[in-house]
Design goal:
By secondary structure, the protein is an alpha+beta fold. The protein contains 14 helices and 15 strands. Strand 14 and strand 15 form a beta hairpin. The chain is globular, with a radius of gyration of 21 Å.
Length: 359
């Protein structure tokens, strides 16, 4: 498996991070979690406000196969969503992957597989001290071995073969995403999911079994590390959810349900989740999409994120179902996690301008 020659040359010219890029106050804050012991720390990672609000992993492999059968390729994927009450649209360009064995080219959108890979790499960057932050060149990322990444996925219940992991890494580095505000349609920003990647060849592995890959995260992740607009959350619990929608809602609640308490539930509608996740768009019948959402919320309840889920159907003329309102009461453990995340966020802001020190 490889990528086209132009991309291959671009990836090979990436400047590796220096020793200084693995140190510094911003990274110390990024790696510091508010918890009681190492076991709790092992369960934590960071989620990013704007970047994780973009519905960028909404197309399943089954949907891709159907589009390929009809068109022979994957066109730009258009997805609309809202971020802080403002409308946006993203246009996702699929990665075209060349398979050396079959001599064929196949288009792939980033999907649930790639989302798991990105989440695991973030954890490695925060937990195993392989993350880097280069403020002068405004980039951040992680160095890792395929074994390290495979073991992290396996530990979280998502075992993948080396071939599957490599395919996902190429998809992430080869896909691009345009984001534009619908209020000013002329302006837009174009990003790669991974802004750069250097791979390790089979020959390099034979010479050095510990040779590492390098990935540069999306610039929005770098911006969040720089401005401290990320939050700690229960990554292990999120990865343990069986459905992509449950994982998406868990991240959403970790970012938005900062006021969680037994007296303050979280109100959200089916239409909002459908719009902003884009994970329910493939259902032909509305009631099937609502049933999928009900199942995801029940999964969060069973998994200890939510204590109670109340559902209220909103009906219009002649009893037609127009929407569904959900009232979500957080579980005690989630409330404690939100309080810890709030405190950690406050401490990070207070310590932002302090000289780097071991935390």
């Amino acid at each position: 498996m490889t990528i086209n020659k132009e991309d291959k040359n671009k990836k090979s010219s990436v400047i590796p991070p220096t020793e200084a890029d693995f140190k510094g106050n911003q990274l110390d804050l990024f790696r510091s979690f508010l918890c009681n012991n190492n076991n709790e720390r092992d369960r934590l990672s960071n989620t990013f406000d704007l970047w994780d609000s973009i519905p960028r992993y909404a197309m399943s492999r089954q949907q891709m196969n159907k589009i390929r059968e009809e068109k022979g390729f994957l066109p730009l994927q258009h997805v609309s969503f809202q971020y802080r009450q403002k409308p946006y649209e993203v246009r996702i360009q699929a990665a075209r992957i060349y398979d050396e064995k079959t001599k064929t080219e196949t288009d792939y959108y980033p999907s649930a597989n790639e989302e798991l890979i990105e989440d695991a790499l973030r954890k490695i960057a925060a937990e195993q001290r392989n993350g880097f932050f280069d403020k002068p060149n405004f980039r951040s990322g992680v160095v890792f071995t395929l074994y390290m990444l495979r073991e992290e996925l396996k530990q979280r219940g998502h075992s993948r073969s080396y071939q599957q992991i490599i395919l996902s890494l190429y998809i992430l580095s080869g896909s691009s995403i345009d984001m534009r505000s619908m209020e000013s349609k002329e302006a837009f920003q174009r990003y790669s999911y991974f802004s750069a990647m250097t791979a390790v060849s089979r020959e390099q592995l034979e010479q050095d079994p510990n040779a590492k890959w390098m990935v540069q995260f999306n610039p929005l992740v770098t911006q969040a590390i720089d401005t401290l607009t990320y939050r700690q959350y229960n990554y292990a619990q999120m990865m343990n959810h069986q459905t992509q929608l449950a994982r998406w809602i868990h991240k959403l609640l970790s970012l938005k349900f900062t006021f969680a308490s037994l007296a303050a539930p979280f109100e959200i509608r089916y239409s909002t989740i459908k719009r902003d996740s884009a994970l329910l768009n493939n259902y032909t019948r509305e009631r099937d999409a609502i049933a999928a959402l009900d199942a995801a919320l029940n999964e969060l309840k069973t998994g200890g994120v939510l204590m109670k889920v109340e559902k209220h159907e909103i009906r219009g003329g002649r009893g037609k179902l127009e929407d569904v309102a959900y009232t979500l009461t957080a579980a005690m453990a989630f409330i404690a996690e939100m309080k810890a995340a709030n405190k950690r966020e406050k401490l990070a802001v207070e310590n932002k301008d302090e000289p780097s020190k071991k935390r």
